Amino acid sequence: MSTVPPPFPTPQEPVDHPELLQLGTGLEAEEPCLRADAARNRARLLEAAARLVAERGAEGVTMEAVAAAACVGKGTVFRRFGDRTGLLTALLDHSEKKFQAAFLGGPPPLGPGAPPVERLRAFGLAMLRRSTDELELQLAAEPGANRRYMSPARRVLRHHIEVLLRQAVPEADCELLSHTLMGQLDPALVHHLTKQCGLPLSRLEDAWIDLVERVAGAGRSG
């Protein structure tokens, strides 16, 4: 797993809170220029964690197991990532940045250039497909209830939905409505519906398109 994310594009839409584009556990933000040995340490820990995910699944990955696989002390893992959620979030960081690059600066309809309702449709479909591909890791990296809605990655995704809603239905309470739409894309719900209820992904995709049509209306897409 690569530890160097792709170049991040300049957003082509209004972003009221540019700090939401930051990812990771917050520890890296305090060390913008990691020492070379610390950077190597972090890369080795992430490689070890990725191997363990492949071998045992995300649920079987512990801080102790990662430390042993990387041949470092357990305290090193805690200092670098804070806790298990921070470690698993760091594993998701690369794909998260690729996804953000796609909806902030990639080709339409996911990226800029398409009407807002069309972009909402594409965003939800891409989120659902990404969740099914990374479902186990996303569930394992889910923060506790007190941090769930404050995680930087989730705030970026919700804010993007809010921006598109403000373009499509400016008269609505777009801030609260964006939380409602994010609920439809929640990994725990996707897991419940696809794994526990046996629903096909295509049904979730159809439901997202229907929800967007009912909330924003195809006639308002501009």
Task: Tell me what you see in this structure.
The chain has 222 residues and is an all-alpha fold. Helices cover 62% and strands 0% of the residues. The protein is built from 10 helices and no strands. The termini are far apart.
Describe the protein's topology.
Elements: H1 36-56, H2 63-70, H3 74-81, H4 84-105, H5 116-133, H6 135-140, H7 152-168, H8 174-184, H9 187-196, H10 201-216
Mean pLDDT: 83
Shape: elongated
Helix content: 55-70%
* Structural class by sheet pairing and helices: mainly alpha
Secondary-structure element order, as H and E? HHHHHHHHHH
| Number of helical segments with 4 or more residues | 10
- Tally the beta strands: 0
Content of β-strand: under 5%
Distance between the amino and carboxyl termini: 41 Å
Would you identify the regions where 5 or more consecutive residues have pLDDT less than 50? 1-30
Largest sheet: none
Rg for CA atoms: 18 Å
Short summary of the structure?
By secondary structure, the protein is mainly α. The chain has helices at 36-56, 63-70, 74-81, 84-105, 116-133, 135-140, 152-168, 174-184, 187-196, 201-216.
Q: Which key features would you list for this structure?
A:
single chain; about 220 residues; mainly alpha; disordered N terminus
